[in-house]
């Protein structure tokens, strides 16, 4: 079964804004998928359903073959790691090391196992030397990598990123997408929201284009270049 299968998902915010309107999308296992669309088209709202931050109001979300509901939230969060657009929204601890350790500690990891997990995650994002640092003092790009390490330390099958390269310079963007490719080669499914059409066309196996809360089209990245 697919990594993620969304069927006729609709979602309205408390103020009545209908952010998603009968969206149906499929993310196959082991693929790299880019979700495109202008600001306000519903990308974040859709992503926030993938790990249970938004509860399903109408329609269904299936992850790794299981229908998402209030009862399997914990399972869901162990399978789907979400990297927020703004790393300041997910980095809370006093040091980088503690921050990356937060998830695994919650999962019950201690001692050498925990040490190894955190070290490995920090090494993967090339931040091994920064464990003792205060996250507040890091650059934006470094914070972003710490946030990703925190997600990797939980070893999710699916990694979801909201605008991962916003505010990064061109070299930072390339480095981040290379990192995502390495994760994908290790078997992770990667879903990322972006409004960088060129990058999506080159990087993704599949693109999903949202417009005003609806799925405009989804398929091969060639969709993006054929039309221009
Ligand atoms: P995108 O990620 O593509 O920029 P969003 O999912 O953030 O789009 O937003 C989709 C729609 O929902 C927009 O009209 C946006 O203004 C609205 N929206 C987003 N968050 C909220 C919120 N907390 N309360 C009310 N409306 C919201
Ligand atoms: P890097 O480690 O990737 O070089 P920098 O701190 O140099 O990160 O930031 C790269 C770009 O992101 C710069 O143009 C900077 O102005 C911008 N930036 C840095 N921090 C933030 C932030 N918190 N919000 C928005 N933009 C930021």
Automatic annotation (TrEMBL):
Subcellular location: Cell membrane
Keyword Translocase among UniProt keywords: yes
Domain of life assignment: Bacteria
Record's GO cellular component terms: ATP-binding cassette (ABC) transporter complex
Keyword Nucleotide-binding: yes
Transmembrane segments: none
Domain ABC transporter: 4-228
Primary site of residence: membrane
GO molecular function: ATP binding; ATP hydrolysis activity; ATPase-coupled transmembrane transporter activity
Membrane topology field: Peripheral membrane protein
Keywords, ordered alphabetically: ATP-binding, Cell membrane, Membrane, Nucleotide-binding, Translocase, Transport
Gene Ontology terms: biological process: cobalt ion transport
Function noted in UniProt: Part of an ABC transporter complex. Responsible for energy coupling to the transport system. Probably part of an ABC transporter complex. Responsible for energy coupling to the transport system.
Family: Belongs to the ABC transporter superfamily.
UniProt protein name: ABC transporter ATP-binding protein
Organism of derivation: Desulforamulus putei DSM 12395
Portion held of the full protein: 2 to 229 of 271
